[in-house]
Amino acid sequence: MHSALLAIDLFFVIEKLVLIVGIVTMSLVIAMYETYAERKVAAFIQDRRGPNRAGPFGLLQPLADGLKLFMKEEIIPNTSNRFLFILGPCLAMLAAMMTSAVIPWGGKLNVMGREVNLQIADINIGILYVFGVVSMGVYGIMIGGWASNNKFSLMAALRGASQVISYELPMGLSLIALLMLTGSLKMSEIVAQQIDSWWNVVYQPLGFFIFLVCAFAECNRTPFDLPEAENELNFGYHQEYSSMKLGFYLFAEYINMFISSVIMATLFFGGYDIPFFNDAAHADWGNWLVALQAVSLLGKVALFIFLFMWVRWTIPRFRYDQLMNLGWKGLIPLSLINMIVTAAIVLLKANHWKF
Asked: Structurally, how many domains does the chain consist of?
């Protein structure tokens, strides 16, 4: 009996380790090729070719860029706080990678007669976990900017902190309205409800729009890239960084963009649900169905990533006062109205629309 339980526990540990390694590797590879895609999208919009020298169609350009960062000299300013200077990019990268732990990437695989859930941790407070980890990411920016002992870096770090605080409020309020409809914080249950019914974007179009705008601000993407405003703050909060410390900050931004896209697809667009495709009717497809579900989720994510890039190369950067006005005077009132209207509808529905 004891040996059987030990074997089950060992299989569970191996299963989770394989999932962690696979998701981390996938996130890094996708983040690496997001840099390639961004340059190609920019080239298309600006009517030029983009990277086309390293490998066929320039596909090896991300590897060349990564090798360049590895080979660069590592410089730590004499006047900086050495420990915090190193901790900043590590914390930003760690927070970016941890967010993917509660995301369901597909249904259940059948491996040697055992069901394997394509989700590292199916906890009952999944959305709260995402918010908690995302909030940690700003510490990487703050610590890096302060430890650099550079006034431009510190100013950029303060901008980043105030921006994240301002836009996390309407993002949270938009999710409260969503949770009123779903009744659960568990990511897998939110996806399951959308598979059985309509996608949440149908019920919460305004909530999705608010969440989308806040995701741009959380990821420091144009038009909300004030912490990295090169024309105002030289190079932003990572001005004093070089080599892979700079690489960690840049990779963290692209991983955040990828994870934000996955979260939006999961919460509002059915997650791994395949449109017009009844999972129950194709249950006999087995692991092939799970593979199609994962491809469906990544397809939705690719559309969101393209949207991030398209906006970057078409909309100019906001001024700082415009950024704050939009957050506090625009999005927060809108999200409160959305929450109140959703609460009224849920209450009326619970009372069977009796007045």
From this structure: 1
